[in-house]
Design a protein that fits this description.
The protein is of the alpha/beta class. It is 41% helix and 13% strand. Strands 1-2-3-4-9-10-11-14 form an eight-stranded parallel β-barrel, surrounded by five helices. The longest helix is centred in the middle third of the chain and has 19 residues. It is globular, with a radius of gyration of 21 Å. Bound molecules: flavin mononucleotide.
């Protein structure tokens, strides 16, 4: 029997395809575009929608906000947590994942918010754990500088231990609703946590009832060795931007080995890879769209600005037609390594063209040809699925339709993805196969 894989979609609560020639409508900022999108993904049996977040308007590219605002890249952008609540209330089966940064929330506030979202979604909430890697975001939260990566993840380890303790501060069965004794909750089953760490402390307990999943599903996207160790230690689902089939396989093998070393069963962790399929009714049409959408100077500029903000590197001063020298960063090192393709001798323009789509592998073709490729890639990589992203994170209703009504049925006909939901919670859905 064909091994099935999981599908998710990654999107910010941001600008939609406002400058797409076939989709120019300005969507209102009430979140309904994404609620409609989530319902459509649910009809197509996606496992989850994952909401991106960032916490600043970058000035990395050219030392100014200009490029970011001109392209609508990092702003306007709304907070994903209220959107997760709207989506959770409007769907029944789809996993709803929101990015929440350990920089932005005190652990107690985050645990309470995440538990509430798990209640609203009846056990379908997932937390994308990010430490935030942008210097400018640190300045928005009163820090003079972003802590180095090692320390960010040390702090995040402690943070996760604290919120896990908070999620467990209400034992199962603590709510008794006993009418004769007029008892709502049994105080013997609700516990202070008295957490005293190096970076965080909290008395607890949480003042929300234990959430349906006990704790939300944890998602993470560590790219650096330290980040991968963090992901392998905590995540139920790891999402990654990898370099081709070899890069995907190496990444998955690595995080699975790290998970085993941390005493976990690697089969309980699903690794999803970012892809941005370009679809057409014919191969020629798909190739023409790829060239039109991602070959332009405007796209190259947007891609360099976006990757600049992720990696905290200003690419604007480098020659577009020369090789990019090797670099490291305190920003997202994994993204920089994938972007830079060190040793490939490609020019900066080619790198922007290649990586700007944020696709771990180039997928351009008809629904049937792309479905075949996705199946072949998963067979070689060993699992576990894909996370769809739209380049520069501009999504349109038209593209959502192409994926859900073109690509997904082609995958379903091949037995590669689910055709129904059989489980209740997001963690169970992820573990189904
Ligand atoms: C698919 C994917 C989604 C991510 N989503 C976010 C996000 O929404 N917000 C954020 O600040 N970082 C996000 N990140 C960044 C990761 O949390 C992480 O910092 C990055 O992969 C680099 O790894 P490192 O921190 O180990 O260097 C994402 C990364 C990937 C690959």
């Amino acid at each position: 029997m064909t091994k099935r894989f999981h599908l998710g979609w990654f999107t910010p609560f941001g600008t939609t395809g406002w400058n797409d020639p076939l989709s120019q409508s300005e969507e209102p900022w009430d979140g309904q575009f994404y609620v409609d999108m989530a319902k459509t993904l649910e009809r197509a049996c996606f496992d989850l929608i994952m909401l991106e977040d960032s916490l600043c308007i970058s000035e990395v590219h050219g030392g100014s906000m200009e490029t970011y605002l001109r392209h609508g890249l990092m702003a306007p952008k709304n907070d994903p947590a209220p959107l997760a609540a709207l989506i959770g209330a409007a769907t029944k089966h789809l996993g709803v994942v929101s990015t929440l940064s350990t920089l932005a929330y005190a652990p107690f506030a985050l645990a309470r918010l995440a538990a509430t979202l798990d209640h609203i979604s009846h056990g379908r909430f997932g937390w994308n754990i990010v430490t935030t890697a942008a210097e400018a975001s640190a300045h928005n939260f009163g820090l003079e500088e972003l802590p180095p990566r090692q320390q960010r993840y040390d702090m995040a380890d402690e943070y996760v231990a604290l919120v896990r303790a908070l999620f467990d501060s209400w034992e199962p069965g603590a709510v008794v609703r006993d009418h004769p004794t007029n008892t709502y909750a049994d105080y013997r089953k609700v516990h202070a946590i008295n957490f005293e760490g190096k970076y965080f402390s909290c008395k607890g307990p949480l003042n929300t009832v234990r959430c349906p999943q006990g704790r939300p599903a944890f998602l993470q996207a560590g790219g650096s060795p330290r980040g991968r160790r963090f992901a392998a230690t905590h995540a139920d689902c790891i999402v990654a931007f990898a370099d081709g089939i070899a890069g995907m396989k190496a990444y998955r093998d690595d995080v699975r080995a790290l998970a085993a070393a941390a005493g976990r069963d690697p089969d309980t962790i699903k690794v999803l890879f970012l892809i941005a399929p370009v679809l057409g009714a014919t191969m020629q049409e798909a190739l023409a769209r790829d060239e039109r959408d991602y070959g332009s100077d405007a796209f190259v500029e947007g891609a360099l600005a976006l990757f600049g903000s992720l990696t905290d590197i200003d690419f604007s001063g480098y020659d577009l037609d020369a090789e990019l020298p090797y670099m490291t960063t305190n920003g997202e090192q994994g993204v920089l390594d994938k972007f830079g393709q060190w040793g490939s001798r490609k020019t900066l323009r080619q790198l922007a063209r290649d990586s700007g789509t944020s696709s771990s592998i180039r997928l351009v073709g008809t629904p049937d040809s792309v479905a075949d490729e996705m199946g072949a890639v998963m067979e070689e990589v060993g699992g576990d699925g894909f996370l769809i992203i739209t380049p520069l994170m501009r999504v349109t209703r038209r593209y959502i339709g192409e994926v859900t009504q073109g690509l997904v049925p082609a995958l379903q006909r091949r037995g590669l993805v689910r055709t129904e939901y059989t489980r209740t919670t997001l963690r169970e859905t992820l573990l189904e196969f």
